[in-house]
Amino acid sequence: MDDELAVRTATRQLAQAAIDRGEPLAWFEELYSRNDMAAIPWADLRPNPNLVDWIADTGRRGDGRRALVVGAGLGDDAEAIAELGYATTAFDIAPSGIGMARARFPESTVQYAVADLLALPADWHGAFDFVFEAYTLQSLPSELRADAARGIAGALALGGEALVVSRGRDEDDPRGNLPWPLTVAELKRLFRTLELVTFEDYLDTADDPPARRLRALFRR
Questions:
Q1: Distance between CA 210 and CA 141 in Å, rounded?
Q2: What's the DSSP call for residue 22?
Q3: Residue 90 · residue 101 · CB < 8 Å
């Protein structure tokens, strides 16, 4: 537990330094470029349990449709989605992170790419039937979240769905440290241009101690 706390503290310091110098996204590449998985707080080397549980509960299948994974990191979520039968594209702003994902899954069918959620490639607009985002919004300063949400919504084809997972907090809770939890109202507001299909507010017992999660499915 002490090692985990040290890793999270070091990551927060790295992120805050980037924010202080006006480069709030630079710390992702700085972290991945160290090529040390033990220094990456979210490097569990398995798909996000909140995605795995949702897949099991919904019986979701891809059937050749197109999926996009936001902030793909080391690739585990993208591989899980590709296994459902989606033609999957996965991106991250950190070139080193994408390099690590490609190295981990050399035979993958996933198209790994370096891209910025705040300025996605034009040909991705309206191109995807399913978009998955977990823990990216909560890692961004609040002033960047609206643009990030617009990127996610904009990537959806008509009838496409976005599954979003984040830490949650009450309106009167302190903002806390990175990762900065979202309130229910904020998450719904960020995606107000989309139809809210399902919304869950629960304790994620895969974390120790359990963490409050918000998991929402939106449809364009």
A1: 24
A2: T
A3: yes
Q: What is the distance between the alpha carbons of residues 77 and 48, in angstroms, rounded to a whole number?
A: 6
Task: Report the SS3 class of residue 176.
Answer: coil
DSSP string, 121-152: -GGGTT-EEEEEEESSGGGS-HHHHHHHHHHH
| Alpha carbons 92 and 113: distance in angstroms, whole number | 7
Residue 182, both tokens: 């979202």
Cα–Cα nearest to 62, from 92, 102, 89, 44: 89
For 118, which DSSP code?
T
CA distance 160 to 158: 5
Picking from 101, 100, 93, 77, the residue whose alpha carbon sits closest to that of residue 27 is 93
Which residue is it, tokens 């991250």?
Answer: 92
User: In the numeric block, which tokens belong to residue 69?
Assistant: 């994974």
Low-confidence residues of the chain: pLDDT under 50: 1
**List of residues 6+ apart from 173 with CB closer than 8 A:** 181
Pick from 160, 159, 158, 162: nearest CA to 149: 162
What local confidence, expressed as pLDDT, does residue 159 receive?
98
Own/partner pairs, 134-137, CB within 8 angstroms, 24+ separation: 134/48, 134/50, 134/51, 134/71, 134/77, 134/164, 134/165, 134/166, 135/42, 135/48, 135/71, 135/165, 135/166, 135/167, 135/179, 136/70, 136/71, 137/164, 137/166, 137/182, 137/187, 137/190
CB-count exposure of residue 99 (10 Å: 0-12, 13-18, 19+): middle
